[in-house]
Amino acid sequence: MHPVIAALAAKKFLAVAGTGLMGLTGLTACTAADSSDDSGTETAAEETTEAAPVVIECDYVPAEADPEAGQSIDAPLDMCATGKVDTWDIAVTAVEVDATDTILAADATNEAPAEGSQYFMITVTGANRADAAAAPTDLLIGVRNGSWTYQSDCGIVPNDVLEVGEVAPGESFTANRCVPIETEKIEGAVIEMALLNSWDVETYTYYASA
Predict the structure, then answer these.
(1) pTM for this prediction
(2) Which domains does the chain show, CATH number per domain?
(3) Comparing C-alpha atoms, which of 88, 188, 101 is closest to residue 138?
(4) Is 155 helix (H, G, I), strand (E, B) or coil?
C-alpha cells in the first residue's frame, strides 16, 4: 500500500466552512413528522456534506527533526512528523484538499482555478534552528505527483507563509501555502519542500499529503 494512502487511516477528516482553515461546522439533521419530509432532510444533509471542503488534520507534537527523514520521495514523512528543511524543522499539520471555496472567500480579487483543477492548501508548522532570526519566505513548498510539480500561487491566502515575519532562533510559526493542482492529480500526490538557496542542488524533503 502506498504510504500516502496508508496514512489516511490515522487522520481526522473534518468538514469546514468559511474562510478560516480550522473553522469547523456541525451538520444538524432535523426530524419531520412524515416520511417525505425525512427524505428531503436527508438529501439536504448529503448535499451540505458534499459541498463542504475536507480538512485532514493530525495531532502535532513539536520535535526535533531527523536530518535523514523524508529525503526520499518514496518514503515521505507522515503528517505531523517533523522534517529538516535546511535550518528549519517543519511539519505538515493540516491539508485542505479542496480549498477553492476558502480561497475565493478570502479576497474578492481571487479567481477560480482552471476547469478541472482545485486549490490545495497546506498548513505547516516550523521551528527556526538557525543561530539568527529568519523569515520562512524563502521556503519553497509545492506538490508533486510523478513528473508533475505544482508550485503556482492561489492568490491571496489566509495566514500566508509569505506574510510571516522574522522568527527568532528556537521559536516557531504556523502558516498556510496554497497551490492549484489538477483534481485528477490529487491521489498519490506528495508535498515537497526546499529552501530557495538549496533548490538548485535538489535538497528536497517530502511529506505525505494525507
Answers:
(1) 0.73
(2) 53-208 (2.60.40.1240)
(3) 88
(4) coil
